[in-house]
Amino acid sequence: MKLSLLYNRQTNQLRVTVIKVENLMSDSTNIDCNPYVKVSLEPGKSQKQQSEVFRGKKNPQFETDFVFKNVTRDDLKKKSIRFKVCNKVGSAVSLYSKKHVMAEVMLSLNQLGLEFGEEVRLWKDLESVSDAQPLGYLNVTVSLDTKEKQLSVTVAEARNLNASSNPNSYVKVCVSQLGRSDVKKQTQVQKNSTSPNFDETFVFSISPSARDLETASICIKVMNKELIKGDSVIGEIILGDICDSNHESYNDSFWESLLMSPTKCLSQWLEISPGLS
């Protein structure tokens, strides 16, 4: 991956340019290569940005700028930039449309001399990221009614749950907002199925202010009811604001789309990922 970085000492802005990436997939692979790059400033509540998708490119010329604001000189000593090279596979409406992380780079800022205000250009080797077997998919519909101060979450059905045997599954939904107590609700147990139908809707009271919505989150956990050992977590999906935005279960694009269109219902098949704990 070829990169360029430039720090503006007057405005405290860091410009990061992804120039190009080479050799994303071998010539023998039959998988479509539709790469894009996600860039985040860490640690802390990361500023996240994303490039457009470059379809059919194994050596994409991105030439894409990402600007991070309010970056102090002290931040240059403590923070890093994470680059994730992802591959968008399948159509946007397909059940098995997935966004694989193909490779990533973590770049520490403290050894680049950015504080002097001069452009730094460099190559970084990509580190491969293994694609774990999906834990299944969950069809979720979320709607936001700011006038009624309500958030509705519909858990419709799951597909291909990856459990040791046919699980007795149910879904727990937890809505969190800063300064408010978490509210938890759950579906009925659907027995002995890897593709259960839940078809349940939960309504939560929320604060509709823009600031509170930005700090809200929905944690959806798919559970397996086990009488002897106790209930176990099959996997989870997280929508909204969390500290660890690089965790596999975090789905930022769905939540951002909801905030941009608060009067609409958003329905989507979401991949179930390993939990945070």
Structure characterization notes:
By secondary structure, this protein is mainly β. Helices cover 7% and strands 44% of the residues. The strands form 4 sheets. Strands 4-3-6-7-9 form a 5-stranded antiparallel beta sheet. Strands 5-2-1-8 form a 4-stranded antiparallel beta sheet, with no helix packed on it. A 4-stranded antiparallel beta sheet has the order 14-11-10-17, with helices on one face. A hairpin with a 7-residue loop joins strand 15 and strand 16 (232-240). It is globular. The protein starts with a strand and ends in a 6-residue tail after the last strand. Mean pLDDT is 83; it is low at 91-98 and 243-250.
Mean pLDDT: 83
Gross geometry: globular
Give the strand order, joined by hyphens, for the main sheet.
Answer: 4-3-6-7-9
Beta-strand segment tally: 17
SS class: mainly beta
Distance between the termini: 32 Å
State which percent range the strand residues make up.
Answer: 35-45%
The number of helical elements comes to: 3
Question: Helix and strand succession?
Answer: EEEEEHEEEEEEEEEHEEHE
Radius of gyration, rounded?
21 Å
Largest sheet: 5 strands, antiparallel
Q: Helical content, roughly?
A: under 10%
* Low-confidence residue ranges: 91-98, 243-250
Summarize this structure briefly.
The protein has 277 residues and is mainly beta.
Task: Tell me the layout of helices and strands.
Layout: E1 2-8, E2 13-20, E3 35-42, E4 48-50, E5 64-68, H1 73-78, E6 80-89, E7 98-108, E8 120-123, E9 127-128, E10 137-145, E11 150-159, E12 169-176, E13 183-186, E14 197-205, H2 210-214, E15 217-224, E16 232-240, H3 252-260, E17 265-271
Antiparallel strand pairs: 1-2, 1-8, 2-5, 3-4, 3-6, 6-7, 7-9, 10-11, 10-17, 11-14, 12-13, 12-15, 15-16
